[in-house]
């Protein structure tokens, strides 16, 4: 099922192999609910969270459950302005990029955040 399948449904048919007139059931309302977001996690490459100045840092955000479409945003030190969007963030790190990173995931009903990940630029 998808969220757009919510609506009113009924069935119909002929009773006794077409000998009696067409009959329809009373309509029923079906409401499809989204799956709440959960299990948001963040992975880093290199996995230690320590990266040399100028090297590439790759962060990946995954979601265990949620109802698509999902939107991803990346934040450092709790900033409101995102560093990027999408489930993956790639940075060639500079001397000011050490800190706590987090992924936020949003669906049509809610927002969930990954745990904070400490990145150290060496």
TrEMBL record:
PROSITE patterns: IG_LIKE (PS50835)
Ig-like domain ranges (all copies): 27-120
Pfam families: Ig_3
Record-linked SMART domains: IG
Annotated protein name in UniProt: FCRL4 protein
Organism (species): Sakesphorus luctuosus
Higher taxonomy: Eukaryota, Metazoa, Chordata, Craniata, Vertebrata
């Amino acid at each position: 099922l998808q969220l757009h399948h919510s609506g009113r449904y009924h069935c119909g048919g002929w009773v006794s192999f077409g000998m009696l007139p067409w009959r329809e059931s009373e309509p029923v309302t079906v409401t499809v609910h989204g799956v709440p977001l959960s299990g948001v996690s963040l992975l880093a490459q290199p996995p230690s969270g320590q990266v040399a100045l100028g090297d590439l840092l790759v962060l990946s955000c995954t979601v265990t459950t949620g109802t698509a479409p999902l939107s991803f945003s990346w934040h450092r030190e709790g900033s409101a302005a995102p560093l990027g969007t999408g489930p993956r963030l790639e940075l060639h790190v500079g001397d000011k990029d050490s800190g706590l990173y987090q992924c936020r995931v949003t669906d049509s009903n809610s927002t969930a955040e990954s745990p904070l990940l400490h990145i150290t630029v060496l």
